[in-house]
Batch of 2 targets.
Target 1
Amino acid sequence: MYRLKEYSTSAPKDVDAAQIKQELAEIQSRLFELQRLLYANSKHSLLIVLQGLDAAGKDSTIRHVFSCINPMGCNVKSFKKPNEVERMHGFLWRIYPHLPAKGMIQIFNRSHYEDILVPTVHGTHDLEVIEHRFNYINNFEEHLTTNNTIIVKFFLHLSEDIQKEKLKQRITDPRRKWKYDIADTQEQKNRKAYIKVYQDIFKRCGPEIPWQIVPSDQKWYRNYLVAKRVMKELEALEMKYPGSKK
């Protein structure tokens, strides 16, 4: 069973930051080549799901880790609170148009899991609806994998103290004020409730496609772990350029 309090939010003390940053640069060079192979072959697609509490660093992770990727082969979609049109459809309706085509990498900044998280914490849907969504998501992800979509799910694990500090910066730092939303401060009070739901998600939507819980107090370590996992997933495909014998 996942218990987030048992997972560190920080890099191990014996890890050298300078060495990790150098390794990250090398991984990103490799990712550039792997993304070209993925695009050239057009046999598989990659869906990267980034989840985390407010201020966990989802935007930052995308910016720093995937700056090495050719924009022609990568898309990013941020899922915020459903709008009026989206609420008139099934909860996965807004997800389908953004699934990756063969050869593409798609990054979800928040995802279909928001439609379990928020309604559960705020009690806007009854348990029967939530139960249906758990089952539907598992079937949905199974369907994607059988169609050669690799799904990698990350939870960016940030300590409460660092979260409070980052939310405060959104109020005081002129470069970050545009990101401030009063709802962030209000939702921070629901931290324990969100963690409880996340733990349930990890348990129920994790056995087949496991979540990676990423220590996120230090950006350099968080970025390294995410990049390394994505590299391993793509390397496992053992891709070659079409027509190549090597």
Target 2
Amino acid sequence: MKEKKGFFGKLISGLTKTRDTFVAGIDSIFNGFSEIDEDFYEELEEVLIMADIGVSTTEKIIENLREKVKEQKIKEVEVCRKLLIDSIKEQMRVSEDAYDFENQQSVIMLIGVNGVGKTTSVGKLAGQMKSQGKRVVLAAADTFRAAAIEQLTEWSNRAGVEIISGQEGGDPASVVFDAVNAAKARNADVLICDTAGRLHNKKNLMEELKKINRIIDREFPQAKRETLVVLDGTTGQNALAQAKQFNEVADITGIILTKLDGTAKGGIAIAIQSEMNIPVKYIGIGEHIDDLQKFDANSFVDALFEKKAD
């Protein structure tokens, strides 16, 4: 339990910038209104949009809140705060089978543009899975960037896992082919693939990912497939736009949201999950290996409102 409390503490401090803006706005509304009227809802809507929760998700939250207020015949403004927290949590629930891939032989592919923390996330996931006693193989399929191969090699050494890599500028699909065969030969529990992310050239990226997917389907059909898009939380609505673009070129099963510490745009986690109906599965709030953790809607929203953990 201590570990979870530690992470909740990090989450609270990591979301400080978001919370400072967000909670100040929320407080001024709940302290400034004595009744629940149209002005109240309008002001609340504005605060949510300013917190990068986005227009579409904000509308859903407000609509949900209105229904609850009406159903429960609520008159007191303060009671609305708890309902607001519940409405936000409802937008972010992760299904029970979201992490099934962890309990089966699996191939996890990470995609995302350069600079979002993709290679680091591959390394952190590898380290965590190795510490759970899993046999892990890494594929350095971001052959576009020499630094990515070097960085991943460093992570593989640190985590004590095997890495399969090729030459800079080589064919990523052939790296994945070799990595799949290595994973099968070693009876690995999980193969984690780092890929290049060049959204400005979407057609090439699409072809590259299709080729990689075909190889995994053909060579490793029994493996559970997981495709995670890595997004930089500091970019706010840009992260949502990237997620939508990657969703056009890949069958995304989950999202890793990095760099949530040091941004006032943490509300983007709510927008992404709600608008895309793709779960945020991991969040990153620091540089250490255990600073990438499974996403928990209750902890996240409680930290946003700085409620104490239950």
